[in-house]
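Listing S7. Sequence submitted for prediction.
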Amino acid sequence: MLSLTRLWRRIGLEGLEHLTLQEVDDGFRVYAVLSVELELGGITCEYHFDLDRRWRTQTFKLSLNQAGEDRKLHIERGENSQWKVNGDQRPDLDGALDLDLSVTPFTNTLAIRQLALAPDEAKEMTAVYVNLPHLEVTPARQRYRRLDPATPPKRFLYEGLGTGFIEEITVDEHGLVVNYPRFAERVG
């Protein structure tokens, strides 16, 4: 069973993230702690994913501390990709592929694993976008394109549709980010 730990360093901002991924009978469990200096001040957060065997979020929990204030967020995926945020149904998120958490490269793994792109194939999707430190949860259109042949490391072009953000991401054999220019790079 898969069990690994990854450490990412933020690029352009002070910050580190420590993530543990553990395969379990019904899927995967992810636990991470990160600390980063944003324009609005430093944040520390812990987050936890319960993923099914297809790398889809079942539950997501986040605890955020900013300037001594603690806040929490809980997101659940229901049947047919219907989403609840802090217990409330969010019809605007219905059909979203998965979560995209603004402060971590890990959530790119969820899209990359689920889209299962062939070389030079591209797909568009909607993500449940969680913007930190505000904890705003909104739908976000995105596109991923696989850039290279089948052997790792694999490269993907990520595009935030409507935002103008485009970046090439390199991932390892598990789909975990190795390098995400202007955002994060794996350490060790």
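Caption to Listing S7: primary sequence and predicted structure tokens for the chain studied. The chain is about 5% helix and 60% strand. Residues 106-115 form the longest helix (10 residues).
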